[in-house]
Amino acid sequence: KAGVTQTPRYLIKTRGQQVTLSCSPISGHRSVSWYQQTPGQGLQFLFEYFSETQRNKGNFPGRFSGRQFSNSRSEMNVSTLERGDSALYLCASSLEGLPTDTQYFGPGTRLTVL
Amino acid sequence: QQPVQSPQAVILREGEDAVINCSSSKALYSVHWYRQKHGEAPVFLMILLKGGEQKGHDKISASFNEKKQQSSLYLTASQLSYSGTYFCGTAAIWTTDSWGKLQFGAGTQVVVTP
């Protein structure tokens, strides 16, 4: 089975721009969770999507948004980028997003905001 | 609330053993262990569900003490390939805040030397 894929792998943007990141889950997985990883804050939960609906959201400003398509692929968008948004953005897929489900991570998108 | 991992770092010689602890102040439903190598995505190691079970993966095993809300990861007869940062991710007892969300500890850096 193919793993979780994320595109692009690397992005360089300037402050004020917006960015869209893409995540394709493992076939059959319907839940996609997004995390931000930084050296200072570690892995922080952004949000989770299931059946095209956001079911859960972490403590991030409204500039961070996402969506999920009918094939379970997900995108996240960050508008009005700030330098502090520089991070590794990871998506993880699981069968249904239950606490008993294993989350499998993609390789991540490394975002640098200049 | 983030679980607390200890120690922050450990240096081992090949063949030595180590224990990594993960403690939560919340009642937990499951504990997920991952290993991340530099520049790569976290790789799933094992999941432990409430009930105090112990699991193993090659010479890496883990336990979950439900009474203490603590999980321990045991690295036995360490190999060079065990180097990396180990994270525990916890899922709290079921609430509406639970969908697809893992709370991660700050990580334990493990270095195995020849």
Key descriptive features of the protein:
heterodimer, A: 114 residues, mainly beta, 7-stranded mixed β-sheet, 4-stranded antiparallel β-sheet, 0% helix, B: 114 residues, 6-stranded mixed β-sheet
Textual characterization of the structure:
The complex is a heterodimer of chains A (114) and B (114). Chain A is mainly β. Chain A is built from no helices and 11 strands. In chain A, strands 2, 4, 5, 6, 9, 10 and 11 form a 7-stranded mixed sheet that branches. Chain A has a 4-stranded antiparallel sheet with strand order 1-3-8-7, with no helix packed on it. In chain A, strand 4 and strand 5 form a beta hairpin. Chain B has no helices and 11 strands. In chain B, the strands form 2 sheets. In chain B, strands 2, 4, 5, 9, 10 and 11 form a 6-stranded mixed sheet that branches. A 5-stranded antiparallel sheet of chain B has the order 1-3-8-7-6, with no helix packed on it. In chain B, a hairpin with a 2-residue loop joins strand 6 and strand 7. Classes of the chains: A mainly beta (114), B mainly beta (114). Chains A and B meet through strand 4, strand 5 and strand 10 of A and strand 4, strand 5, strand 9 and strand 10 of B.
